[in-house]
Amino acid sequence: MKVKICGIQDLDTALYAKQIGTDAIGFVFAKSKRQLTAEQAEKIADGLKEGPLKVGVFVNETLEEIKAIADQAALDVVQLHGDEPPELAKQIHLPVIKAFSFQKGASLSDMLAYPADFILLDSPIGPYRGGNGTSFDWSLLQNESFDRSRFILAGGLNTENVEEAIQIVQPFAVDVSSGVETNGMKDKMKMKRFIQTAKGAKQDDYIYTTR
């Protein structure tokens, strides 16, 4: 199981994420309580050197700005978390994650048709596009037939529920932010427990029961 920890804001936390085996870290360049500048991300990237994949999270940003920040911050992946048209994704020179808010009645087939390397399903939109600490009904995905090798699950995940979430929806990766924080700051103990739990979760023979 691959794990992305989003909302990284400082080098110390990024280095700890690397130490505990995090596969990817997210830099939020959109309006958010975890927002950082390209300059801050560049310093973190310089300090990390080899390490987790660096994912830049953008919301309805221009192609030119995405490319400029991606180059400056040495991003490995671009995550589009707004209402970006497919044409924009096709012009990005890096692998793309497209995030969608998922709820009952949403068209999964339309989301999967988006020209991205990975599709991230998040909870319905709250104060910000992502990072709001709420989950959606995972059972809605349990019996859906689709390519889960490009599916990332996000929204309200934490150390207490990530194993259940993985067993129900069988994603390629999970994405966490507020679920590994205490008082709005990344909590190293929660980060480590989340990594251990997610990577130790069994991914078969699970029958859904009411949460």
UniProtKB/TrEMBL annotation:
Pfam entry (one): PRAI
Catalytic activity, EC: 5.3.1.24
Known catalytic reactions: N-(5-phospho-beta-D-ribosyl)anthranilate = 1-(2-carboxyphenylamino)-1-deoxy-D-ribulose 5-phosphate
Top-level taxon of origin: Bacteria
Matching CDD domains: PRAI
All copies of domain N-(5'phosphoribosyl) anthranilate isomerase (PRAI), residue ranges: 3-196
Keywords: Amino-acid biosynthesis, Aromatic amino acid biosynthesis, Isomerase, Tryptophan biosynthesis
Pathway(s) annotated for this protein in UniProt: Amino-acid biosynthesis; L-tryptophan biosynthesis; L-tryptophan from chorismate: step 3/5
Sample GO molecular function, one term: phosphoribosylanthranilate isomerase activity
Annotated signal sequence range: none
GO BP annotations listed: L-tryptophan biosynthetic process
The protein's enzyme class: isomerase
Family listed: Belongs to the TrpF family.
HAMAP family on file: PRAI
Name the record gives this protein: N-(5'-phosphoribosyl)anthranilate isomerase
